[in-house]
Fold this sequence. Notes:
The chain is of the alpha/beta class and 204 residues long.
Amino acid sequence: MEHPSHIQAHRPLIAIIDPNTLAAIGLKQLLQNVMPVATIDVFGSMAELTANRPERYVHYFVAMNVVLENRPFFASCQRRTIVLTLSIDDTLQLSGFHSLCINQPERGLLQQLLTLVQHAHGQGHNLPPMPSILTKKLLTDREIEVMALVAQGLINKEIADRLNIGLTTVITHRKNIMDKLGLKSVSALTIYAVMHGYVDVSQI
């Protein structure tokens, strides 16, 4: 992806441009979990973006109608633009742009977003380094096993059967995992597991 040289030394800036405030806030939360090193700003219109030095941003996540209304601008930074669409049908996407379908179940959205991020950044190797607290091994081997199965969508009973442990033990492990990592949702846990290589994005 294109990265303006003056941005590389700092936290990368990402812009979401979408008049649907609720959708934009939800996407911001997901992106913050996927890329905790990034600073994410939300704009309700193109006018708001242009008033805030748009050249600073390494990526733009933009509603389809905003891209269509401002095609010359986004065509000039095509590789940094991800179009937010309501359909997963490839024939309905804008040619030449990366797309992200926001009208799908959360697990599908997570998988598409993680795939997009990893492929765009050479399997994640070109992303800025994670904060040191996030790179330390905070979990036991058993907790990592439980986390990987949670990320793959297994319920507590299935995890207990797979690992041959008690149901209450699984519940305890899950609580400890969330507490240690400071996470509040299964989505955040899934993102953590994928970004740290415990689960392949194709498994979620």
